[in-house]
Amino acid sequence: MGWVIWVDLSRMKYFKEPLRAELARAYVGGHGLGGRILFDETPRWVGAFDPLNPLVFVTGPVVGTQAPCAGRFTVVTKSPLTGYFGDANAGGYWGPELKFAGYDMIVVKGVASKPLYLYVGDDRVELRDASAYWGMDARSADRAIRSDLGDKAVRVACIGPAGENLVRFAGIMSDEAGRAAARCGVGAVMGFKKLKAIAVKGSLKVPVMSSELLAELSREIITRMMRDERVIYFGKAGTPGSFAALWEIGDVPSYNFRGGEYGGAGSPAVERVGYPGGYSEILANRKTCYVCSIACRRVISVRNGEFKIEEDVEGPEYETLAAFGPNCGITDIRAIAKLNDLCNLYGVDTISAGSTIAFAMECFEQGLLSKDDTGGVELTFGNAAAAIDLLEKICRREGLGAILAEGTRRAAASIGGGASRYAMHCKGQEIAMHDPRAFQSGGVHYACSPTGGRHTEGLTVFHEMNPPASSEIPYPKIASRSSIDGKAELAKLTEDWWAFTAAAGWCNFARFGYGSESTYLRVYAAVTGVELKISEALLIGERIFNLKRCFNFRHGCTKGEDTLPQRLLTEPGNAGNVVRLNEMLKEYYNLRGWDLQTGIPTQDKLSALDLSDLIDKLRLRG
Amino acid sequence: MGWVIWVDLSRMKYFKEPLRAELARAYVGGHGLGGRILFDETPRWVGAFDPLNPLVFVTGPVVGTQAPCAGRFTVVTKSPLTGYFGDANAGGYWGPELKFAGYDMIVVKGVASKPLYLYVGDDRVELRDASAYWGMDARSADRAIRSDLGDKAVRVACIGPAGENLVRFAGIMSDEAGRAAARCGVGAVMGFKKLKAIAVKGSLKVPVMSSELLAELSREIITRMMRDERVIYFGKAGTPGSFAALWEIGDVPSYNFRGGEYGGAGSPAVERVGYPGGYSEILANRKTCYVCSIACRRVISVRNGEFKIEEDVEGPEYETLAAFGPNCGITDIRAIAKLNDLCNLYGVDTISAGSTIAFAMECFEQGLLSKDDTGGVELTFGNAAAAIDLLEKICRREGLGAILAEGTRRAAASIGGGASRYAMHCKGQEIAMHDPRAFQSGGVHYACSPTGGRHTEGLTVFHEMNPPASSEIPYPKIASRSSIDGKAELAKLTEDWWAFTAAAGWCNFARFGYGSESTYLRVYAAVTGVELKISEALLIGERIFNLKRCFNFRHGCTKGEDTLPQRLLTEPGNAGNVVRLNEMLKEYYNLRGWDLQTGIPTQDKLSALDLSDLIDKLRLRG
User: Fold this and answer.
1) Integer Cα distance of A382 and B79 in angstroms
2) How far apart are the C-alpha atoms of A106 and A7, rounded to whole Å?
């Protein structure tokens, strides 16, 4: 285990302490470890835009080791979008670099009086003037900081203008704006703190318990990956490779989740933007994160035309493709690639950005927004130029953009006239681009997700499409995607497992190579010396999931917010179904050990999860 | 009844509508009417610094009529200091002027993209550029706006630099920075909205139901006032006139409520700053608010020396005198006058400012703050120059000032090391300068005050000092100030009556002239045509008090926050007592009809108060 840096930007002070072993054992890392810090450091009266709101950068025990597909870092903070638990994570190289410098976690509190960045180079920790970088896009800032440091090998996590402008769904970018930790608006909190960047350079080796065993396991995993057809296809296709299959089952939302044929009747727009298809035409290369042989990162080239991008950049992931493609009705892959790049430069979450623009398009169509509001722009579905214009206005907070920069929940309240029916959010965060009407477990998952409608806290659509023949986790039998039988349990088990693996620092796609759950745990033991059974790992995941929920309830959440946008409960969408939420909810609460009246985890459940100390804090909400 | 203006700064739009009669009947005006708007317009996920947080300027039915001592306006918003219900009110001339223009209320939502001010001149409503006034102190801004409008008779309510800088206890100033609506940080919300000012000019007569009856009643009241010895003394002495008597009983806190002889052993500092005494030496004149023959406003002159003020300005009220005097240990009335004037110019609440500086002084004394933090200043009790320096830093958010600008609760959390024991707040707001250890009813009142430790929601110290021989309100018998018998009931009845009279627009000091409660109700009937019995007026007050509490609970408050700073419960202070809070709390809850487990008003109570519609919103906290 490494060290923790505590930074107070208000007092321009910092100190270091070793990570406490019992914290690491109970909460592992990522949203677990960072989440416990957030819970302990944040009284309920502290808001998201509040100097006291901690911004925690945290890796995980397996990050930076030889273990494949384990290079992620997580940012934890009280979310300005939801007002509840916020976290976001990203792959790439920043997380491992922090480990190389000897640190597991950086906790940033306070607010700087002028723009600063934090430099961490092994023992050296410095708060430096960032005035010169303030206002720069995320890619330029990344390059400028490294150039000024005279060390290209430094890794930078930074915000773009959207974070500076407190856009509530701003993210934190790394790898020259190629990777984004962007959900929950973590970049806006960084902007509020006037912290432009954290630049990291490390020269140490991450200590592991048994490096020989780890090497052997890693070889085994990589060998399996290299032979696995799914991995080979995934490497070729990236996340956009699943677009057509997901469209087929109605999982991909179109026209702000209203549904409808994408691109118009008989026009195969799915092919025009998906892979293979239109995406192949702009695909220039692949990229990889730290110690990953999958290489699902895309590099695209759009060097001319209306949507020209000056250099080859990272291409849209599936979420982005869906958010700006069918959900905004845009059918030109080059426009989608341009929107993706703008999101990366300004530093905003592509899911929330796409969903917010789709929301505005539907408001325009419904007459709730007029050309007066849009500055004369015809904000219709499919209008790529209008989407680009609006995205820039959002990131700069200009005109209508200032209202939309607040996210769909707040924007709907500002616009009024029933606009809230078009705001596709859970607890204030725009839901991910997997329509739960196509897989019922997704409905109860979105509704109860502590961070509101995520796809990285336990996405079950692939499981529902192709239930595994066997598994070490006792998943229930799945009759069909439209059935609700076993769906609450599927959601719960997936959430718990993902909560554990994410906390440890693994990428979701590690599963392609690791094959079985016990492989993860063998790697975990080789790295940490802690041998866990599957049930123990699930218990840790459950602890983390409940910790996040307890944070929410302490901060004012009630079970009334365990719900979905009305549209998903009443309109059939592309899947031709509605989510049967109420039927699943009670089963889910019982499985989770949550009080049916209040939605709060019972004292017995909290005791079983070693979270008894939260009980008093929940009661008094002090 | 008049009209309401709804302004959306984000969309630069406004509309007008007549005030709905049933709202006015149920909630009267002020914190009642504005409070109902706040409750309805503010989902729990909206923070204080949030474009959706409404900022409501509201007068009352008797304001602007011939009725004496009824010229107040109230500002209602979600408080950035407490995160709960926020209101502040002020006398002077701005409220009546708004009535003359035909309006009862202005509801401001959204946030402007650049500094604006609102001009209201009868039918004319305009949002105007305020860039030229941004950064100006409140007095200069007031004068500049009126000068630029070419109309000296315009009345301006505006913020100073503290509001612009989001100092959490910033206020809204009027009458050339002479009057302050400053509690709960309402000025910071105005600053967040980039609304520098509201300038008002009216030419209409406020319609009343029976002007003959009102004229007769007003003559009767004024005649009584002119003969009343208390009124004559109060006019001569102003609020500082009660300083010595309150000091005598231990009601005036010293040294951050730690207590101790003010000015040192044998040194009669009370005389050096009080009236008569030191205050007399700087007193230059008296001033009055709209239709008030008491004239308790002070004008002071400090035209030379270390604490020179360039012109004659309004002098410190009792609260300010106590906050900067004994509570900071400052014994020079000229220094206190200077601090008062700086608070007015920057636009901050003098109670919170004084309490925050006293808090910092105690932290310095205890070694929790060092010269490193203060920029080399010896921040000891009694150091007037240090207090002035720190006040300016707070208002400008410089150095340690940036931490203290967040109020004592947040500053204590930033400073750590147990500093929270020196933060003299309830629910995040610094308590007023009446030490409840000197009068037990004040303890339960502060603890349960919806806005946290106020002196204008029901101050019982004078009642406990001199219980009235008889009263139309069925007050309980008071054995002594140190006894708790009847104190819960005294607090409740006082709160309910004050809630009603404040909502109608009366000044607290109207009681000197009105004599009996039924006089208020006769005036109320003459103005509105609504005849109320005392019990009915108390019920309205109770409705408003509970509405404010329900807002708090919807926004995450729990009964755990019905408490006092530990010091008041464990240390004797100047009164030689502690507050016996727990003993009073249960009785108070029962009298109020609040659930003993949760602290939430019972359904029966809410039904009795015609607040049944809040029940669902409380349950779901949607």
Assistant:
1) 42
2) 7
Neighbour-count burial of B203, counting CB atoms closer than 10 A to its CB (0-12 exposed, 13-18 middle, 19+ buried)? exposed
Q: How confident is the model at residue B539 (pLDDT cuts 50, 70, 90)?
A: very high
CB A498 within 8 A of CB A505: no
Q: Where are the beta strands (DSSP E) in A494-567?
A: none
- C-alpha B98 chain-centroid distance: 20
- Give the CATH fold of the A436-619 domain: 1.10.599
**Residues A193-226 pLDDT 10s:** 999 999 999 999 999 999 999 999 999 999 999 9
Strands (E), A64-206: 73-78, 85-90, 103-109, 116-121, 124-129, 155-158, 172-174, 179-181, 195-201
CA pair distance A148, A129, nearest whole angstrom: 12
Which residue ranges does chain B devote to CATH 1.10.599.10? 436-619
Find the helix or strand (DSSP H, E) in which B87 lies.
strand B85-90
Tokens (6 digits) for A138: 């995320």
pLDDT value at B621 more than 80 = no
* CATH fold label, B252-423: 1.10.569
Measuring CA to CA, which residue among B304, B310, B357, B296 is closest to residue B334? B304
What are the backbone angles phi and psi of residue A451, rounded to the nearest 5°?
A: -105, 0
Q: Do B10 and A556 lie within an 8 Å CB cutoff?
A: no
- The answer to whether A106 and A7 are in contact (CB under 8 A) is yes
Nearest to A16 by CA among A155, A100, A118, A123: A123
Selecting from A51, A83, A113 the residue whose C-beta is nearest the C-beta of B406 gives A51
Contact indicator for B118, B197 with CB cutoff of 8 Å: yes
CB A361 within 8 A of CB A368: no
Class at the top of the CATH hierarchy for domain A3-201: alpha beta
B411, B440, B437: which is closest to B425 by C-alpha?
Answer: B411
- Chain B residues contacting A via beta carbons under 8 Å: 8, 10-11, 43-52, 82-83, 109-111, 113, 373, 397-399, 402-403, 406, 409-410, 413-414, 428, 555-558, 560-561, 619-622
Q: Which tens digits make up the pLDDT trace of A10-68?
A: 999 999 999 999 999 999 999 999 999 999 999 999 999 999 999 999 999 999 999 99
Place of tokens 């309510």: B157
Least confident stretch, B97-101, B313-317, B555-559: B555-559
Angstrom distance (rounded) from CA A334 to CA A351: 18
Cα separation of B70 and A336, whole Å? 62
Nearest alpha-carbon partner for A299 in A284, A318, A319, A311: A284
Residue B282 one-letter amino acid:
I
Tokens of B520: 């208020």
Q: What is the pTM of this model?
A: 0.95
Closest CA to B163 of B55, B72, B268: B55
Q: Do the chains contact at B11 and A373, CB–CB below 8 Å?
A: yes
Over the stretch A29-42, which tens digit does the pLDDT of each residue have?
Answer: 999 999 999 999 99
What are the chain A neighbours of B371 within 8 Å (beta carbons)? none
Angle ∠(B275,B279,B280) on CA atoms, nearest 5: 80
For B10, name the nearest residue in chain A, comparing CA atoms only: A403
Q: Do B52 and A82 touch (CB under 8 A)?
A: no
Indicate the residue of A10, A399, A619 with minimum beta-carbon distance to B403.
A10
- pLDDT for res A621: 44
Select from B113, B558, B619 the Cβ nearest to the Cβ of A620.
B558
- Give the separation between CA A187 and CA A192, rounded to whole angstroms: 9
Beta bridge mates, A299 = A285, A314
Six token digits for residue A454: 């995520």
Parallel, antiparallel or unpaired: strands B425-426 and B313-314 = unpaired
Q: What is the average pLDDT score of chain B?
A: 96
Q: Is the dihedral of CA B78, B81, B84, B90 positive or negative?
A: negative
